[in-house]
Amino acid sequence: MIKIFVLYDNKVTDITNVVKSISNTGDKAQAARKLDVTFTYPIWDRNQPRTQIRPGSKVWVVLDGKEIFRGVTWNREIDSASESLPFMAYDYLIYLTKSKVTFNFVDITPEDATRKICEELGVEVGDLAGTGIKVKRLIAQKTGYEAIMEMYTQASKQNGKQYIPVMDGTKLCVIEKGKVIANYTLISQIDDPTNNMIGTNYRDTLDGMVNKVKIYDDKNNYVGEVGNDSWRNEYGLIQENYVKEADKDSNVVATGMLSDIQQDVTIQALGNWECRTGYAVNTKIFYISNLQNAVMYVDGDTHTWEPATGKYTMSLNLSYKNQMDSKG
């Protein structure tokens, strides 16, 4: 069961009974999770109470007794034709995307740098993925989110791991991206009573293909190259350049720049809150060969509830590759 609460004028109100729809969206490039809610707002019938909310109002959502979202109302509007009031809220990661910082970091791990950034911006810190990799980086006039991701990107270039920030209530956490959701599979099989999918949209494209990377030093002298001959033979040469960085293994970084054919998958299914951006899910989809038994990475998700009917569905944007929102 879904429930939604609002703090307005220092009073907590359960607004679930007047809510028409709830939608909670995440995306690896969006950073902050977004909550879209529409509730009834009677204009002509003065006997019906009006639920109040305004920008800045605190809002939280509870699913089956567990809080899944806490944030701040960002905007609202009144639709007199439908006598409804839609509003949008973000979780507290929004403050890291709206405020800028400047730091000259020297020999500091991304996790410690994140603590300094959050301290300056007044954001609480929860569990941060440890890297143990010390980084030297000038961060100038970047948002707090960009600064954190830029620091973690430098670690990712060395250890190959992917990272993503998430909120736990009011606390910022950074997790390793790509953990597979346990005991759950997206299923679409012929005559299978465990089917939980509603539909699929699949697209593949050569946009983003890189099959050769030439490496240069800081004086633009050729150093070496990495590539994938089979991709180049099949699709044609698409080349990128990389300038060596003093504190990084150039071959590791250049290899990480190689990119295969891009495949975009969007799946609609019965709702499961564990299926969120930053995690991975198993698939068994009989009509797409490379999804018949695959692990897919969730790069975007939208969970939608209709409280009056109990209907709960989700739409997932899935990727074959586990990639963070790299910065710098």
UniProtKB/TrEMBL annotation:
Residues 25-318 form the YqbQ/XkdQ domain. It comes from the Bacteria. SUPFAM superfamilies: Phage tail proteins (SSF69279). Pfam families: YQBQ. InterPro entries: YqbQ/XkdQ (IPR056937). This is YqbQ/XkdQ domain-containing protein. It comes from Desulfosporosinus acididurans.
